[in-house]
Amino acid sequence: QAAGGGGRAAPLACGVHNVCRLLTHRAHGFYARDAGVAHRKNLGLLRKIMCQESTKFKNVWTTHSASPIAYERGRIYMDNYQCCISSIAQEPRILYQKSKCAKSEKIEDALLLECPLGEMLPSPSDYKASLIVLTVQNWLLRLSADSGEVLEKVYLAGSCCKFFRYLSWDTPQEVMIVKSAQNKLPAAARQAGIQQTVLFYLAVFQVLPLSFIGMLEINKKIFGNSVTDVAVSNGILIVMYSMGLVRLYNFKAILEQFMEQPFDLGQEFNWNGQVGIVGKYPFGLPCNIKITDTPPLLFEASSLENAFQIGGYPWHYIITPNKKKHKGVFHICSLKDNALAKNGIQDMKCCSLEPDWIYFHPDMSGRIIHVGPNLIKVLKLKEVKNHADQMEIAEDFTIVANRENCVSNSVTVTASGRVVKKRFTSLDDDPEQETFKIVDYEDELDLLSTVAVTQIGADGRAHLDFHCNEHGILLKSIPLKESWDVTYSHEVYFDKDLVLHIEQKPNRRFSCHVYQMVCDTARDD
Known about the structure:
It comes from Chaetorhynchus papuensis (pygmy drongo). Keywords: Membrane, Transmembrane, Transmembrane helix. This protein is mainly β. The strands form ten sheets. Strands 1-36-35-34 form a four-stranded antiparallel beta sheet, with no helix packed on it. A four-stranded antiparallel beta sheet has the order 2-3-4-5, with no helix packed on it. It is globular.
């Protein structure tokens, strides 16, 4: 009833008369006065406008650089993150430009940090986007994304490790992992018989506010001699071995079981005879998580080149049998019992220089995207009829490249004048035929984007296509004006009304081309 006591009870919204359904609808933001509804409506309108025939994407800006160019959420970073350019304005503008840094301050890796919704944070600056960067001298810095101002700084490397190089998310925007390069002894030390047992160091941080959880080492004595790499994702420690083996461990359980003593950033400590302040130079961070015994194994699989993915519903994984002859063959198996799904062997039988690739769809639908040179398959998991405990792989839809028949005739004439015709088939990724190079998903507009390239002589032409994510129908095609050289690397970002193409050119030159949505091109011209 109304707070005054005399009013009538408000009617249930949208005609929903079930309390559970009402709460579910409310959680999903189905009501007109909910901010989520307005946002979804706006994005729906943007998608319709963008896919109209009259809407064009215009190349509004191009720049070149002698160093790599990066893009994050409407910001273009150049000169090793010393220059930040906003791509949201009608014409890109510089947000900040720092003086050229010394080699000792070079940034090795970076992550964009965005404010979590609905949480109280200790500092007003925490509510704005920031950039976490890792320098070559083992400093972890949090920079303002708009001004480049240093908001926080943490020194990582104490006596244990000198070479932190990689940043990644364990839980996106919540738990961050800082990984060292693989420890390798100098040749002279190896010849002297000195053995290196510690392969990697992992420092774990909670973000916003930035806090230190712990540091641990990946040791040969615990995980074996043939470890080649490690990664952490969604609470799972992934250990990869030279023979193609992949092993999974519960990372959260490892932190809890082997934590010797917790430390906070800025705290004074006396650790193994060292006295210092956590996160300050020259002491850095203590290695306070000591794995003394092999943790319980959650799962292991053998796959060519350690290629291993988990996704779908119910949980499945994708591997390639661990033999070179099986390259390009993918097995989709149940995580529960390792059973191969019906139609679970996916093989495009490509005859190409570049292999096809497969991955779980990032839209969380549980579908699978399999990309070949001239064909994109979107696959789905479904129950086998009359066998509820067994799953099969079915085709949801396909996207086919627009190319001509690749079969041509080679005509030769013998010495006697006899004409001989030999039929041959060109490669599936023949550059003179349209070939898929990039497939991506725009989550806010629910569009699947593809980049297809055709090379004619020295000139390559590319176009970016938008497809309905549900059915694969082509909704829009955008030609890219610049030439596309297939021998160099390219990145294409599609971010709502913005398309951005970053390419590498000969002699390590980099270019960035920005396209923006234009609705009235006639008046523009």
